[in-house]
Amino acid sequence: MTTRGSFQQESVGVEVWLQRARSFICKLWMSSPKLFMAFLTLVFGGLGFLWMYLADWYDQGGWPESPDRVLYRTLQLFILESGDVDESHHDNLFLIGARMSAATFFVLTVWSAIERLLSDTLSALRLRFAHDHDIVCGLGRVGEQITSDILKDLPAVKWWLPTTWQRPRLVVVEQAPDDRRFADLRKLGVIAIAGDVTDEKLLQRLNVTAARRLFVCSGSDDVNVEVVFDLLNLLQEDQDPERAAWRNQAASRNRNEVCLQCFVHVLDPGLCDVLIQHAARAARLQRVELRVFNVVRNSVREFLMGHLLDHRPQDEQVTLLPVLIGFDPYVEELAKQIGELAHFANRKRVRMLIAADDPRQAARRLLGKYGSLGPSKIANDPNDEAEFAFGAGDDLWSSRRQRPIPACRVNGPEAEQESAVEYVSNVMFTDLPDYITDETFVRGLDRLRRSFDAAVNLSERLWRVHGKRTNGKGVPVYVRLSRQAAFTEFLKTVGSSSGSNAPVVKPFGSCAESATLSVLLDDRKEVLARQFHADYQRRYCDGNREGACSEWENLGASYRQANLSAAAHALIKLELLGMQHVPRKGIDDTQIVDRLTDAELELMAEIEHNRWMSERLLDGWRWGLKRDNDSKALSEPERAKDRTQIQVIFEVLNSGGMCVVRKESPSLIDTRLA
User: Fold this and answer.
1) What's the sign of the alpha-carbon dihedral 483, 494, 352, 615?
2) How many CB atoms within 10 Å of residue 336?
3) Alpha carbons 444 and 330: distance in angstroms, whole number
4) Does the pLDDT of residue 214 top 90, yes or no?
5) Helix (H) or strand (E) holding 288
6) What predicted TM-score, i.e. pTM, was given to this entire model?
7) How far is Cα 48 from Cα 101, in angstroms, rounded to an integer?
8) Is residue 149 within 8 Å of 516, Cβ to Cβ?
9) N or C, which end of the chain is more exposed by having fewer CB within 10 Å?
10) What integer pLDDT is reported at residue 382 of this predicted model?
11) CA torsion angle 74 76 79 84 (round to 10)
12) Residue 507 predicted with pLDDT over 80
């Protein structure tokens, strides 16, 4: 007797097998329609002829022919030869299905051969009618990450239609392609083209004037910049009415009235700023939104925004000391942004220790770009504590015991002013030592083995020296692993499950974190920066639209970066105050914070002034003699500007469907400092 429980188990088992069968059939069709049709032909043909012979055997009392005829006549279906079938078997549904499958298999095989012979022509034909598609130029680390993210967001391809017959949604271009990677992309309906993107004829073939987004990330700044200007020339010369209609329709759908978004990866920060200032203006005239990005800058900013507050000074007498191991453009950007963003309630300069193979060359390179970052101090003996000693007063903004390079010093009558600040941080350079016993940020060397070994050894030594001070949690060591995605995930897993005495090694800087599509499309900081600039125009410009008062689209790169820096640090200030920026929906008005206490306002205004001053110094500005020449401190009107800036932050953050609320956890600011 079959029980109810056993019947349910058998029913579930049948459902599982049916689900597996459906999944197998769908995967087979999506991966290879020809193989799918061949499979159907074999199954239906075998069943059809077997059914026919069984019927004849039943009627005649024996096999009319040898059973191997079933297999032979089934295979004949692939060459469209099914042989004569008696009229009594014309209603054999299996044979009807087998003939149709065989014919479809034949058509797909012929079409596949035509595709191989005329692949370029067919791709050009698909591109001719493409619109609202994405184009990725370059399949390096950045391009590969962007392509992967776009494919995740694309709608599923139509299962009943071969991918080469569907409207293209993504086009990739690579000068030196990987044939296997190209084949995988083409199976997903992607048009993969091998060619030089600086060729204007290729840009025309890509139908770039009807595209939705263009990502230029070839790995060469020269190539990327040339593509941008070729694009602008092409848009200016394009007179096709159909593509013009598509662009008008795209612009009407976009809130910024642009028909094409162009994302350009530029490694040189200076060239990045030049493109933002000049090329973006020309692009705007063609209704193109040009967004220049730098993966190094993005990676550093995301890293600092995520970890800087974890290591804030907890006491007024404590100063943050990041330790940077190695030296390359990544360290240059990291040092600059630490000096720009590391401003806390202790009201002190940040310290930095940079350990490089050649500390003198590192000092020349870094201070040659950012002379106001700090004094050119080199410690010759990394094991001599006296070499690493900073004076207690050196961290005060008014201190001049340490001096920057001569070009950044304040001389003449201005030098008598105590408020004349010359540099941002107390930075020191040294040789790569056997060990370092200070905290907190550590950037590893480029090669994986050296980076990881150095990070583990350093973390173990730091834990032995500082374990008691960190309550047994260890001193975190951050190692940059830009390429090893799997190893990065492994380290994150190990770090979250390891004991208190295990090395605290935290990876950062991978393309999977800094070059993702979500990071490139996230314009929250730019929206805040635009609002800060609009408020500045309203308060201080009186109708003037030149220099710092220009419209955002015409604003110089220096002023634009200043507003972006203010927007980034606004989120840090919220964390310091124990607040967060959340959607307004569902938030009671009594929970929204629109004003600070007097103590909070004064402290935030001072932090904001130090941040603004550091950002201006690093941008090449110098202290100038004030009109109130006898003043020894910041004037009250200037203090009022800083207070106003803090109030503006809350006005801006409490608009656009967002608001500021206090967290349940206490503020990160020590009330004694306020």
Assistant:
1) positive
2) 22
3) 11
4) yes
5) strand 288-293
6) 0.73
7) 13
8) yes
9) N
10) 53
11) -100
12) no
* Whether 107 contacts 34, CB under 8 Å: no
Name which of 311, 257, 253 is nearest 285 in CA terms.
257
What does the chain come to in residues?
Answer: 674
Rounded Cα gap, residues 141 and 267, in angstroms? 13
Q: What is the pLDDT of residue 207?
A: 86
d(CA 313, CA 405): 28
Residue 171 has pLDDT above 90, yes or no: yes
Distance, CA of 593 to CA of 361 (rounded, Å): 49
Q: Which has the closest alpha carbon to 461: 633, 325, 311?
A: 325
pLDDT digits (tens, 9 = 90+) for 290-342: 888 888 888 888 888 878 877 788 777 777 878 787 788 888 988 999 999 98
The gap from C-alpha 330 to its chain's centroid, in whole angstroms, comes to 16
CA-to-CA dists, residue 227 to 172, 222, 366, 505, angstroms: 14, 9, 30, 40
Instruction: Please tell me the distance from the alpha carbon of residue 574 to that of residue 309, in angstroms, as a whole number.
Output: 11
Q: 555: which DSSP letter?
A: -
Residues 6+ apart with CB under 8 A from 157: 30, 163, 166, 188, 189
Q: What domains are defined for the chain?
A: 17-117 (no CATH), 119-293 (3.40.50.720), 300-514 (no CATH), 523-621+632-662 (1.10.490.160)
What are 440's two structure tokens? 């907190």
Model confidence over 27-53: pLDDT tens digits? Answer: 666 667 777 888 888 787 777 777 777
For tokens 């791709």, name the residue: 123
Q: What's at 157, amino acid-wise?
A: V
Which residues contact residue 292 at a Cβ distance below 8 angstroms, ignoring those fewer than 6 apart? 263, 264, 266, 272, 275, 276, 279, 280
- Rounded to the nearest 10°, the torsion over CA 282, 286, 288, 290 is -10
What residues does 194 pair with on adjacent strands?
A: 174
Q: Determine the Cα–Cα distance for residues 580 and 661; give it in Å rounded to an integer.
A: 6
Q: Reduced to 3 states, what is the DSSP secondary structure of residue 17? A: helix
- Cβ 380 vs Cβ 387: under 8 Å: yes
The CA–CA distances, whole Å, from 643 to 595, 603, 604, 608, 648 equal 11, 9, 8, 9, 9
Q: Cα(529)–Cα(89) distance, rounded to whole angstroms?
A: 78
Encoded tokens for 520: 């490139």
Residues ≥6 apart with Cβ < 8 Å to 668: 309, 312, 575, 576, 577, 578
pLDDT value, residue 665: 59
CB 172 within 8 A of CB 186: no
In this prediction, residue 365 has a pLDDT band, given cuts at 50, 70 and 90, of: very high
Q: What confidence category does residue 3 fall into, taking pLDDT thresholds of 50, 70 and 90?
A: low
Separation CA 613–CA 345 (nearest Å): 16
CA distance 318 to 430: 22
Residues whose CB falls within 8 Å of the CB of residue 363, separated by 6 or more in sequence, listed in order:
376, 378, 429
At which residue do the structure tokens 């067919």 appear? 122
Look up residue 292 and give its DSSP letter: E
Yes or no: say if 414 and 420 are a contact pair by the CB < 8 Å rule.
yes
For residue 594, what are the CA distances in angstroms to 526, 588, 606, 643, 671? 21, 13, 19, 14, 20
The residues near 283 (Cβ < 8 Å, ≥ 6 apart) are 228, 232, 262, 289, 290
pLDDT digits (tens, 9 = 90+) for 108-124: 888 777 767 767 777 77
pLDDT score at 670: 47
Tell me how far the alpha carbon of residue 661 is from its chain's centroid.
28
Chain-centroid distance, C-alpha 130: 27
